[in-house]
């Protein structure tokens, strides 16, 4: 049974980068792999041809990623920029956690292609706790270990 396709929330920059990756994988990279397969095939016996086997494996990985990108882009919804000072999908947040300040982007891991920030999923324990929190607010969440952890939102800005 086919897995239900979910909406993928992306920033415009992440959407554009994934689209560029798809174009590269469907064009230049696919052609490069096809050429490597043809070159290896011309060498003769394919059963003991490591170059051929590696190129075929790479072809399979590429086609899998192409299919994944097609589905993501088809189901993509561009995030509306969240309000400054409030944590939402597409926010860059500065958190004080265990006495240290850390900066994260909030959203699905696919937005990481367009940013240098580590990404917190809004569905993770910490992500769910900070969603909707305002600058200066302290919230707590239960870590997977069962420990209660407090986190303070120092800042929240829309991801650029």
Automatic annotation (TrEMBL):
The keyword DNA-binding is assigned to this record: yes
InterPro entries reported in the protein's UniProt record: GreA/GreB_C_sf, TF_GreA/GreB_CS, Tscrpt_elong_fac_GreA/B, Tscrpt_elong_fac_GreA/B_C, Tscrpt_elong_fac_GreA/B_fam, Tscrpt_elong_fac_GreA/B_N, Tscrpt_elong_fac_GreA/B_N_sf
Gene3D superfamilies membership: Transcription elongation factor, GreA/GreB, C-terminal domain, Transcription elongation factor, GreA/GreB, N-terminal domain
Molecular function (Gene Ontology), one example: translation elongation factor activity
Key words of the record: DNA-binding, Elongation factor, Protein biosynthesis, Transcription, Transcription regulation
Superkingdom as given in the UniProt entry: Bacteria
GO biological process, one term: regulation of DNA-templated transcription elongation
Annotated PROSITE patterns: GREAB_1
Pfam family, one: GreA_GreB_N
Annotated ranges, domain Transcription elongation factor GreA/GreB C-terminal: 83-156
Record keyword Transcription regulation present: yes
Domain Transcription elongation factor GreA/GreB N-terminal: 9-78
HAMAP family associated with the record: GreA_GreB (MF_00105)
Function: Necessary for efficient RNA polymerase transcription elongation past template-encoded arresting sites. The arresting sites in DNA have the property of trapping a certain fraction of elongating RNA polymerases that pass through, resulting in locked ternary complexes. Cleavage of the nascent transcript by cleavage factors such as GreA or GreB allows the resumption of elongation from the new 3'terminus. GreA releases sequences of 2 to 3 nucleotides.
Family: Belongs to the GreA/GreB family.
Protein name as annotated: Transcription elongation factor GreA
Native organism taxonomy: Bacteria, Bacillati, Actinomycetota, Actinomycetes, Bifidobacteriales
